[in-house]
Amino acid sequence: MATTPASLMASGPSATLLYNDWYPALRSETLRGRQLSTVMLMGIPMVLGRRGDGRIFAMRDSCPHRGIPLSCGWFDGQSVTCKYHGWAFEPVSGQCREIPSLTPLDILDPTRIYATAFPCEERDGYAWVYVPEPGSGKLRAGESALPPVPEVPKFGTRYRSAHLTADLPCNVDHGIIGLMDPAHGPFVHQSWWWRKKASIHEKEKRFEPIPQGFRMATHAPSGNSAPYKLLGVYGEPITTAIDFVLPNRRYETIRCGDKWFASLTTVTPTVTNACRIDVCGAWNVFHRVPFVTAIAKFFGNMFVRQDQETMIQQAQGLKYDPTLMLIDDADRPAKWYFALKQARLEAQRTGEPMRHPIDGPVTLHWRS
């Protein structure tokens, strides 16, 4: 029985974080007017808002002068002003615009001072923030090439969408391997509309390496889930593909003729021992069914809450730092995650190209 080294699978609260990438901070619809919103992301307190021109921004919620949270101050649509001494900052660049206490006798140039600002972009209803590695220096939008901002795959201009979120009381590693776990469905998600324990049968899926991750290759989905059965009304073959991409993304695409459903699920570290799961789905199926978005969100919320409840219960056991293991094919995706994460960290340390730990396609077998 294969196991994973303790150095890669910490049962306690700590998890090594992956920087130099995009993470969803919060729903962008909350950023309106002159309202500032705060969030913890990767253990960093952040303040976000929307400028008068519509562009969103993210800053470290700390004035570089004396450390008071900038969110305690004021935002006029153009500048964020510190409550303590009135220092004003342009929020996208972080550049200081004004220090009221300076006199004509002072030689300090305020524009040479910067609060920490992070590249921030809006996609699929989220404010995505690029978080550089600590100590790498100031990184502002436009200064260097950044990877593309993640988004839900789409196969047409007309579609509906919905968002789900839940907080998880565990480190990001446990959240992610729970996200990709193929064997928990019949137990955690038992329900008349999804699966029953009695529906367990052997699965055989082909996986292949992709940049920064792996793919469950396009295949006909299992027939033991009601949502897939519903697509049968279109009379076309149904296929699905699932990708996992570092640092935290699971893409799923379901096709049925010209009908499609796609989702992007992320597990984002907020603080040391907690993370947040966000799901954004887009689809063009059942577009004539009344209240289809409300119905999808209702059942989707039930699904996510089942995962959340299980993670809350798991956290009770993890408090005592038990010895853990990963076994055989059902846990192979989790093993790949840890190997990919280690490979990326090594590449960042050495400056060499990342060496992918999966050397070719492989077929896995498990029962679920």
Automatic annotation (TrEMBL):
Residues 22-129 form the Rieske domain. One of its GO terms (molecular function) is metal ion binding. The keyword Metal-binding applies. Keywords: 2Fe-2S, Dioxygenase, Iron, Iron-sulfur, Metal-binding, Oxidoreductase. InterPro entries: Cholesterol_7-desaturase, Rieske_2Fe-2S, Rieske_2Fe-2S_sf. This is Aromatic ring-hydroxylating dioxygenase subunit alpha.
